[in-house]
Fold:
Amino acid sequence: MRAAAYLILATLFWAGNFVVGHAAMETMQPLQLTYWRWTLAAAPLLVLAQLVERPDWRGVLRRWPILLLLSSLGMSAYTLLLYSALGHTSALNASLVTAANPALIVVLAVILLRDRPRPLGWAGIGLGLAGVLLVLTGGDINRLLTFSINKGEMLILAAITVWGLYTIIARRVDIPAITSTALQVAMAAVVLSPLALITGAGLPQTPSEGWSLAFIALFPSLGSYLLWNLALKRTTAANAGNYLNLIAVFTALITVALGQPITLPQILGGVLVISGVLLTSAGGPQRPRSSKSTSSPPSPSPAPEFRSR
Structure:
């Protein structure tokens, strides 16, 4: 029960990140929000890694090239693409498309790693793809035939592709999870600093921007990571991965609570995507399972793979 509570809260915070990130994009720039998010989260995550995992920092830092690559993909590129997408599409659409990420990871694993899913896995991939297309087109097939897909949806597709590559690479990195995350976040803050300086990505100028940044830095960036890792000490990574489907559900509930309409294509598309993810998980490749979670919390707060200890 405690693990379930941790996972529910973690996914609720990540869902809130979609909604708050979407609102923040009305007045802030993607680079500005990305830079300050990771800058504010870096030091607390490093402290958290030391308290929870007590890593051999010198040994971990010897692997800085792969950590820098992961940081560039998962922290910088993914987050920038996701925030850019939230400036052009709804939080619900973004969360629904991102929910198909596990199926996309399986496809990338087939292409890059020569994995071979079982028939049930392929059925899940097809079902998830149908759900994504339904969300992207709003039920209007002509939008697909004429390539008139919203810019935001195209950006979110690019974002989950980047995250898929990140996940496949991260599978092979045996570094304590919070430590790996903290170093990647710190590297992102350092790498993005020159760009932030050149573009004038200063601190928030209004109270609403400040509260948005505070929420994103505190709850999705710190709270969700801590809760996710605590849950993985009490349950399996596979079970935890199933809870990620709640992100789209919570996003939908928050959307309704805020008085925003939900369309029938969004509802049907979400059902297809989540059903496809469950089928894909059940029909995965027959290979030894890693102790890492390979599902991504799709949010402006993407959770790198957390390893159970």
About this structure: The first helix runs from residue 2 to 24. Residues 287-309 have pLDDT under 50 and may be disordered. The CA atoms of residues 17 and 62 lie 33 Å apart.
